Amino acid sequence: MKACTHGVLAFFDDLEQAPWNLIAQIQDNCLSLNGVVCRSCGEACDDSVIRFKLEIGGKARPLLDETECTGCGECIAICPTQSIQIHRLPETAVTEAQASVGGAKQA
Fold it and tell me: Domain 4Fe-4S ferredoxin-type, which positions (predicted)?
């Protein structure tokens, strides 16, 4: 895991842990937040959880659907300003996510 410079793989020490306990967070130095046209992260996201909302003044605000983000790291690799970080969800959020996924499978 030392080859991963972004630290995404460092969270996977325990192979039993759920894959959805990580989430991407977009930082303030995001090009799009600063008026520069860039949607690289949204285009790289296979699950389409990063979308852009056009605002007055021509800025496109990136919106991340935290309930669907898997923390896979695709958006990190493509971001030209390294404005995306991966964080571990609080344990209560992981438990709630596991319960909702388990409930959805049973339905």
Answer: 60-89
